[in-house]
């Protein structure tokens, strides 16, 4: 089956480009930050510099690993869903479910190996830039030299391979497990995440304004709340659609299409909710903390500088991966609808009307994801601001929120409309014939 997997990749390489991009970015992030372990492990590195480098590698490397898994899982889930007919044909030809799993996992591992190899060069350059940033801010001594060693290389390759293999196995397994069993597990995990997230956000009031760990509780609470909303995204989307007073052909058709595809669109809502919540909450709380330190006339300690650097870096990593997940999922989902678009045009719809439906769908998805992401972000921002400054909502929130909304809307609407416009270049009869 591994030979069949390699032939499948050679036959249709375009289908693996999204997975390759996710694996490449994931390996690059993991190698870049884990190279700080190699740098800190050299002789002659002072304890303060070693602690700074080790903290950066541990925290961001852990986030990077999770993001690799979710990015690859999102891409492979869409890929496997679109190959349902091909996989069913293999089963009818005598292939067992275990053999099909080995084939899909083999494809993912082969693509992950290529992505890891391509990521070595950019990770080396990225590690040097990261070390320079630490040295320019005074967090690491100038005498520390950069090192890219076995820790960075082995961790990047192994974690990317494990994440890709696990994500591929999960994507295939979802096709064979019962839908009711999956729904129960997701509902339990969602309720647990919402409960723990709310408790974490509320626990902020137990800290004092000068506690070093003050930001941890609301930040983790916002992250867990966004995870809970993300797991419930199909239900949340259905609830929004039932209350939309849209009129006209484009609005009615957009709502109908979204109702039929709520499960398939879950990955897009997961990306939007997570990006809005984590980015808005982290950047706003960091801005509030920096202003509070400046107002008090104090100088930031090395630990405070480390925390600020890590917060900004984590947000940057999340933003890149979420944009990749959004673009990959939207591109694959929109391209897969070429036959649907062709049928609509044969039924009398103009290309402009088809684009209007796609635009309405994108707006509904964007607004839904941003709304629940904002709720999760406010659950962390408001308690932190009350404890740290005695205000309720900081002045920085609106600017940060508008920036995150602009990025989300540009990624969602730009990808869906751009891909739909490209698909519509194919004649309607040709699109229906090729898709069939």
Can you give me a brief rundown of this structure?
This protein is mainly α and 436 residues long.
Structural description of this entry:
With 436 residues, the chain is mostly helical. The chain has two domains: 1-176, no CATH class; 180-436, no CATH class. 82% of the residues lie in helices and 0% in strands. The chain has 16 helices and no strands. The protein is globular. The mean pLDDT is 80.
* Structural class estimated from helices and strands: mainly alpha
- Overall number of domains: 2
Q: Please outline the major beta sheet.
A: none
What is the CA-atom radius of gyration, in angstroms? 23 Å
Assign a percent range to the helix content: over 70%
Instruction: Give me the number of helical elements.
Output: 16
Distance between the termini: 27 Å
Task: Please state the average pLDDT score.
Answer: 80
Based on CA inertia axes, which overall geometry fits? Answer: globular
Q: Unreliable runs, pLDDT <50, ≥5 residues?
A: none
Percent strand: under 5%
- Element order: H for helix, E for strand: HHHHHHHHHHHHHHHH
**Tally of strands:** 0
